[in-house]
Amino acid sequence: MSINTPFTVLYDKRCVLCRRVKKWLEEQPKYVEMKFVEATSKEAYHKFPEIDHNRTLTELTVISDNGLVYKGEKAWVICLWALEEYREWAVTLTAPELFPLAQRMIMWVSSNRFKISRLLGK
Fold first, then answer.
1. Which helix (DSSP H) or strand (DSSP E) does residue 107 occupy?
2. Contact between 65 and 37 (Cβ < 8 Å)
3. Which of 81, 108, 114, 115 is deepest in the core (most CB within 10 A)?
4. What are 58-115's pLDDT values in tens digits?
5. How many C-beta atoms lie closer than 10 Å to residue 7's C-beta?
6. Dihedral angle sign, alpha carbons of residues 9, 12, 18, 20
7. Tell me, what's the pLDDT at 81?
8. Distances (CA, A) of 16 to 12, 68, 81, 88
9. Which helix (H) or strand (E) holds 36?
């Protein structure tokens, strides 16, 4: 059961890795509910006209119901923070000593997501 306002997670449906992460997130127990919207869908353009939708295809974007926008590594961390079993990990990853490492890791995964997708298959 969620205890906070929901997040909208924009994802790239062309990416196998993105679809797998979406499915994994959907299955996790959450403190904060997540709604998943394909990044370049009519719904995404209509609901979030101020967002650079081309950029949402290259980095994860999460929007809270109160309008806060999280991009890239901050979006990954906020997704973990929303999950019951991973909130502590999210807090740990944002520690000043670890966040630069988390940023590099997330940037690497993001920039190689189609290569990773090919390895995962469809």
1. helix 99-111
2. no
3. 81
4. 888 999 998 999 998 899 899 999 999 989 988 887 787 766 666 676 666 666 556 6
5. 24
6. positive
7. 94
8. 9, 27, 23, 27
9. strand 32-38
Report which residue type is found at 62.
V
Distances (CA, A) of 119 to 13, 75, 86, 115: 17, 24, 26, 7
- Map out the domains of the chain with their CATH numbers: 4-120 (3.40.30)
Helices (H) and strands (E) in the chain, counts: 6, 4
Q: CB burial class (10 A; 0-12, 13-18, 19+) of residue 73?
A: buried
Taking residues 39-51, report their average pLDDT.
93
Q: Which secondary structure element, helix H or strand E, spans residue 33, and what is its range?
A: strand 32-38
| pTM for this entry | 0.80
